[in-house]
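Regression check, guanosine-5',3'-tetraphosphate case 528:
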Amino acid sequence: MPEIKAEAQRRRTFAIISHPDAGKTTLTEKFLLYGGALNKEAGAVKAREGRRSATSDWMELEQQRGISITSTALQFEYRDKVLNLLDTPGHRDFSEDTYRVLAAADAAIMVLDAAKGIEPQTLKLFEVCREREIPFLTFINKWDRPGKPALELLDEIEETLVVEPTPVTWPVGIPGDFRGVINRNDGIYTRFERTARGSTIAPEEEVAPEQAAVDDAEWWPQATEESELLDEIGRVVDVKTFLAGESTPVFFGSALTNFGVRFLLDGVVDLVPSPAPRSMADGSRRALDDPFCGLVFKVQAGMDKAHRDRIAFVRVCSGRFERGITAYAEKTEKQFSTKYAQTMFGQDRGTADEAYPGDVLGLVNANDLRVGDAVYVDQPASFPDLPAFAPEHFMRARVKDTSKFKQFRKGLVQLDEEGTIQVLRDEDLGDQAPVLAAVGPMQFEVATHRLENEFGAAIELTSTPYTIARRTDAESAPKLKSMQGVTVMERDDGRMLALFESRYWMDRVVSDHPELTLERMVAEGGLA
Ligand code: G4P
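Current build output:
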C-alpha cells in the first residue's frame, strides 16, 4: 500500500469529553502510561505535577479556576497504531471551542463518573458531538468507589442521550468493590489488581469461568446473568450504528487504578475509524494521498511567555507534511515557512519533521491563519465553514487607561482571530467601546485576563440589554436598526449580527418580517 494511505490507516484521532472532575485528565495520563509515553514508576504522578506547572506558564487562569480552558494534542503509540488525542475544554462556556476540536477528530470518548452518570456538562458536550455527527465511545469511570448500578447507568445513557449503549466490557463486582471485567467479545474474564494510585500498569489475570465462580462467588453470577441479558436484548457492539452516532460502545473501569484502561485503548484502536478523505467546500473529497492540506482548528497565542508565539493547530487531512515545506494559507494565498512546526509527543512539545493524515501540527507564527482555514501545498484547498455558535452574552468593553488604547485594539483583534471572543462594533461607539459577544460568560473572564496580562490593557465591562443574536446582512441592516429592541453590529471580517433584547422579540421580528435576513446559528438557546 502506498505510504501515505498506510500511515493514515495507522492513525486514530480522537477527543475526550467529560464534565469537570469525571476523570478526563487522569484518563489522559493513563493513556500515556499505556502508550509508553510515560514510563517508569510513579510516572503518572510526575506527569500530573508537570502538567500543572506547564499549564500555569501559559494559562494562569486555567490553574486559578482549576478548569481546562485551552486544548492541546498529544500523540502516542499503542499496539502498532499512532494515537492522536485532542484535549477539549471541560466547561460548557467553551462549547464552541469543543466543536472546533471535534472538527479535527474522528471520534470522541465520553467519560462518565459512575456515581454521577450524565451530568449537565456531559449533556451539553454530547450535544456538540451530535451536532458534529461524530461517533463516540463511553467510559464509565471511578468504578473503584461507590456509584450507580451498571444497568441503571445504561438506562440513563439511553434515555438522556437517546443513544443505544452497547457494552464492550461488563464489570464483575459493584462500584466500590471492583474485581474485573468480562470482555463481551470473547467472554474472557480479566481480573485486576490494584497498584498504588495506578502509577504502573495494572497487573491483569485472565480467569476461567469455573475459577471465577469460586474466587468471586459474590459477584460472578450477577455479572454473567447481566451480560447474558444484554446479549438477549441485542446490546452488542454494532459498527454501523456506532459510526452513525446511534449507538455507543461502553467500557467500565477506573482511570485512577488503571482498571479497564487497556480495554478502552483497544476499543480506540479497533473501533475509532482511521482518517478518511475529507469533504471540501466545493463538495469534492480530498483523497488521503493528495498533496498536503490541513484544517486549522485552533489558534492560540501566549503559550510561551518568553516568546508570546502564536500557534495555529492544524489537523492534517491529506498528504505527507514535511518540516520546511512552503505551505499556503487559504484566505490570503500567502506562503509561509513551516520550519518551526511542532507536535506534542507524550508530554513534550517536539519538532515535527513529518506528519500524516490524522496528525496534529502546531504551526508557529503562522499569522495569516484563522480557525476553519485550510493550509496546503500544490493544490488549493478550502473546507466547509465551521458553523458559528450563537452568542448569548454581550458586554461593552472600554479600556481603563486610555493611553493603552493601541494595546487594547491589538489585543481585541488577536482575541477575535483566535475565537476567544467575538468583537462587534456599532456605528456610534465603534472601536472606542466595542461589544464583546460570547457563547458562555466565562469567555469574558478569559478575554479580560488576557487583555490585561498579555497586552497590558485592563478593561472595564458594562452590560448591554442584548441576549440573543442572528446573522444578518447589509441589506436588512437599516430596517433592523430602525426597530426598537434591536441593533446591528459588525465584525472585523464584515459579517453582521442583529442583536435582540429578548428571544420573544426576535421570534416576532422573524415571523413578521420574512423579507429580512436573520440566519440561525448553531446551539441558539440550546447548548450554552
Ligand atoms: P477532569 O480532568 O475530568 O476534571 O478530572 P481529573 O482527572 O482531574 O479527576 C478529578 C478527580 O477524580 C481527581 O481527584 C482524580 O484523582 C479523581 N479520579 C479520576 N479517576 C478516578 C477513578 O477512577 N477513581 C477514583 N476514585 N478517583 C478518580 P482530586 O482529588 O481532585 O485530585 P488528586 O488529588 O487525586 O490529584
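Comparison notes: Residues 18, 20-26, 90, 141-142, 144-145, 254-256 surround guanosine-5',3'-tetraphosphate (CB under 6 Å). Residues 39-59, 61-71 have pLDDT under 50 and may be disordered. No diff flagged against the previous build.
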